[in-house]
Amino acid sequence: PGPDARAGSALRPSVVAHRGASARAPENTLEAVDAAAALGVSWVENDVQRTSDGVLVVIHDESLRRTTDAEEVFPGRAPWKVRDFTAAEIARLDAGSWFGAAYAGARVPTLEEYLDRVERHHQKLLLEVKNPELYPGIERETLKLLGNEGWLDRRHLANRLIVQSFSADSLRTVHDLEPAVRTGLLGMPALADLPRFAQFADLVNPSHTSLSSSYVSAVHALTGPHGTTVKVFTWTVDDAATARAVAGYGVDGVITDEPDLVRHALYGY
Ligand code: G3P
Ligand code: CA
């Protein structure tokens, strides 16, 4: 079945494929988006950074080293930071072989390519602006590209796109630039700080490791910038027992490398 063919979007919690279906295919590649789609998973999460010549690309680490062959292709360019390479250079890298020979030739996608692939599968996107402090202006550039690609159309905004960040400053910038965009603050702020963040964050997205039902309830007691209850998507939940536990806390989303496992644990299919 295609995304949501069975679940619809009404089931709670939503299941979100972390960096795509990253237990099945190399993280943050188009192949990982395809793998999520093949599993019928509608939400994918990714990480956005910027090349030296200003192109937005989808990759998690600050360095190219772990998930590409940059070290072999560009010896002498240590420490292989994403921001020190042009888009053309990054396009030459193999971002799949580290994961498995079957994925040799997978690339680091540009955000534009990534959005096209998510759109092709009619999926939903949890877009993380990664390390925004390293990339001044990345919020505006990301929103511009989202707009150019049609992701800021009204029909998408309420239920198909969330922009998240560990940086409250970055998230506030996103909110100020495009107030209609739904935003998620990564981490687990102190209870006393939650009302302040609810001025610009529609979600608070903590690690599952210290999450509790009382924390989820405290977040749910807040009203976000769009007049709805502030939601909780938790990460990274890769086993059935934890998936059931966080669902019991009342979370709204479970971010996982193993979306099929989590869906089976929660919904039995
Ligand atoms: O979506 C939550 C999660 O992605 C945050 O941590 O390090 O995997 O980007 P990280
Ligand atoms: Ca992420």
From TrEMBL:
One of its GO terms (molecular function) is hydrolase activity. It holds the Pfam family GDPD. It comes from the Bacteria. The keyword Hydrolase applies. Coiled coil: none annotated. Residues 13-266 form the GP-PDE domain. Keywords: Hydrolase. This is Hydrolase.
